[in-house]
Design goal:
about 675 residues, mainly alpha, ABC transporter involved in vitamin B12 uptake, BtuC, 2 domains, two-stranded antiparallel ribbon, 28 helices, 2 strands
């Protein structure tokens, strides 16, 4: 595959980019007229801009709030769109952006740390801290994907891994600092509200410098777009140019996030839309991105401001922007020739790296010893403490044992449920890197439960489980509908799933900003915690998981056929569409049950079936059982570490599981196969 194959996008719209820019410009003129109209009627437009009457509250509010917000919206949109265009061109990847490659999450994580722990005298270093966070995140993504030639699929997967890890870290910091929770969370959701010109004057020179630098490098960008070998043969210093341009793109992104928080998907949607509309030259793309991005965010923010007046609730612009931008991923996938690489590495082509028999024995021993260890030992600040070791058991000892049992078994059952869910999705979708969280099932389940709990006041766990399962099923139906024409390319399911996850994550942010006093509890649950479980719920989820596991094992022969592909399955008499939907339905129910009990967990549904397969569990029945064994052990270890590693404080189990999953993914990415 040629280096430029990733950017081979067809022109699908007959309209030129100029028409698109003109429509947005006219829309923004309408926005300005609407905002200025009360003052235009009185002939005060010039006065309210230059020197407002300090005795007129409307003029003061407009001059120090609305006007700087309009300027901020344009600057942020222009800067992020330009940064996204530069990153896409440098990496020759139409799905690359500050959002999808972890830059935004890195800046947000770094700034959250700075806000929470840095003294006021260190304020001058805030921008440098943010820039370092973004560069480190992008560097991690680049290093992970470099082993696979920076293919589209691996860049996006690496970005997702880094995003999930850094977002988990940000959530943990917020949970341990509840006094800052609402303000920091609101900033993280992307807030353009202004109470003066300070933020605008802060961001203006920085975005301007970044724009000038990137535009000045537009000619070298054209060379990089031809591929590394071609650019080198023409005299370009590829590595230096790539680092320089990426550095300026991250600088612009860090400046925007420092001033306004996370603004989602402008950096992806705007340059991608312009490419689809026909722009190919880097200089033209950069210039159009600046104005199109600025006008687009200005118009979106105007729409957001109209909703903010309803009931006094605040709708974060950044999260709302993601609702407009994330669907462009789906559009790009359908209109662009994106070939992530050879998809032959299916479930039968992985090199076995661990003995199946040895792994089975080892996991069984770890499971038995681990359950005993988890129930009877803990850390108390002075080392290991054994329950009941120093005296007879009393009521307090029994309560401690019961609490540990509830949390340990809850984690283990969730590990089993997600392992089965991930195995079914991977085998039916013929994609060894698919899982409930990557394909949008976990996000849809979590969103449905949050809406039912925070907005409609549904409190019964059984009702919440049904609502969550319904959300996961709807997400899977949408995903299958989007991928129905691409059965020959399993990676399309993965990339469309990432798009759905981004959209659902934006809605979760919006709902959380409206949940008031429940925000802390919901954030804790979203990070993945066993703290809210009880044994009755654990037994219900265990029953559901056990029954569906038996059903899946009973259908192991059709699962084997489905793994062969659509043509072979149909020729052997399997109704692939019906069977695929049935298995995805089972996967959605399992993901919903696990999410309700512990929260949306990352990586378990990806890692367990993948590790089981490379360990030698190739046939469907053995694959399911091996995945369950691995998933149970991973979550058991994660729960004990989360409960004890920072004693007496407790970390979310989901964060520890994410750390384990990230470590495994890094090992996987480092392998040549």
């Amino acid at each position: 595959m040629s280096p430029t194959a990733h950017m081979n996008i067809k022109r699908v719209f007959p309209r030129t980019p100029t028409i698109l820019l003109g429509v947005l410009a006219l829309s923004c003129i309408g926005v300005l007229i609407a905002d200025f109209w009360p003052f235009l009627q009185r002939g005060l437009a010039g006065q309210v801009i230059l020197s407002p009457d300090e005795t007129d509250f409307d003029q003061i509010l407009f001059h120090y709030s609305t006007l700087p917000r309009l300027a901020m919206a344009f600057l942020c949109g222009a800067g992020l769109a330009l940064a996204g265009a530069a990153i896409q061109t440098v990496l020759r990847n139409p799905l690359a952006s500050p959002t999808t490659l972890g830059v935004g999450a890195g800046v947000e994580f770094a700034l959250t740390i700075f806000i929470l722990i840095a003294p006021a005298s260190f304020a001058i270093f805030q921008e440098a801290f943010a820039l370092a966070g973004g560069m480190i995140a992008l560097g991690a993504v680049y290093l992970i994907a470099a082993k696979r030639g920076n293919a589209t699929l691996w860049l996006i997967l690496a970005g997702m891994i880094v995003n999930l890890l850094l977002q988990s870290g940000t959530q943990v910091l917020l949970l341990f600092n509840e006094q800052y929770l609402q303000s920091v969370f609101m900033w993280g959701a992307g807030d353009l509200a202004q109470n003066g010109w300070d933020a605008t004057l802060f961001i203006l020179p920085r975005v301007a410098i970044g724009m000038i630098a990137v535009l000045a490098l537009s000619r070298p960008l054209d060379l990089l777009a031809l591929g590394d070998e071609t650019a080198s043969s023409l005299g370009a210093k590829v590595t230096v140019l790539r680092l320089l341009i990426l550095g300026f793109a991250v600088f612009i992104t860090a400046s925007v996030i420092s001033a306004a928080g996370m603004i989602g998907f402008v950096g992806l949607a705007v340059p991608a839309a312009l490419r689809i509309a026909g722009l190919t030259r880097s200089r033209d793309l950069m210039i159009y991105s600046v104005f199109t991005g600025g006008f687009a965010l200005l118009f979106i923010d105007f729409m957001v401001r109209q909703f903010n007046g309803l009931g006094g609730d605040i709708l974060p612009t950044g999260a709302a922007t993601a609702l407009f931008g994330a669907p462009f991923i789906i559009l790009i996938l359908r209109k662009a020739r994106i070939i992530p690489g050879n998809q032959s590495d299916d479930q039968h082509s992985d090199q076995q790296i661990i003995s199946k028999t040895g792994l089975s024995i080892l996991l069984t021993v770890i499971l038995i010893v681990g359950v005993v260890f988890s129930l009877f030992t803990s850390l108390d600040g002075n080392g290991f403490a054994v329950l009941g070791w120093t005296g007879p058991w009393g009521d307090s000892s029994l309560d401690i044992f019961t609490g540990r049992a509830e949390r340990t078994f809850a984690a283990m059952i969730c590990g089993a449920a997600l392992a089965v869910s991930g195995t079914l999705i991977q085998r039916v979708g013929r994609n060894p890197l698919a899982s409930p969280e990557i394909t949008g099932v976990s996000s849809a389940t979590a969103l449905a439960i949050i809406i039912a709990l925070a907005i409609f006041g549904v409190g019964q766990r059984a009702d919440l489980m049904l609502v969550g399962a319904f959300g996961g099923i709807i997400s899977l139906i949408v995903l299958l509908a989007l991928c129905r024409k691409f059965n020959h390319a399993p990676h399309y399911m993965l990339l469309n799933g990432l798009a759905l996850t981004a959209i659902l994550g934006a809605i979760v942010r919006i709902v959380l900003t409206r949940s008031g006093t429940q925000t802390s509890m919901l954030l804790s649950w979203l990070a993945g915690t066993t703290y809210f479980t009880n044994m009755d719920e654990v037994m219900i989820v265990a029953g559901v998981t056990g029954v569906l596991l038996i059903v899946a094992i009973a259908l192991r022969r059709p699962l084997e056929l489905a793994s062969l592909g659509t043509d072979q399955s149909v020729s052997l008499g399997l109704g692939i569409s019906t069977f695929q939907f049935a298995m995805m339905l089972v996967a959605a129910i399992l993901a919903a049950a696990a999410t309700l009990l512990v929260g949306p967990l990352s990586f378990v549904g990806l890692m367990a079936p993948h590790l089981a397969r490379v360990a030698g569990y190739r046939l469907a029945g053995g694959h399911l059982l091996g995945s369950v064994l691995i998933g149970v052990n991973v979550m058991m270890v994660a729960e004990w570490l989360a409960r004890n590693i920072l004693y007496p404080q407790q970390l979310p189990t989901g964060l520890i599981a994410a750390l384990i999953g990230t470590s495994y993914f890094l090992i996987l990415a480092a392998r040549k196969r």
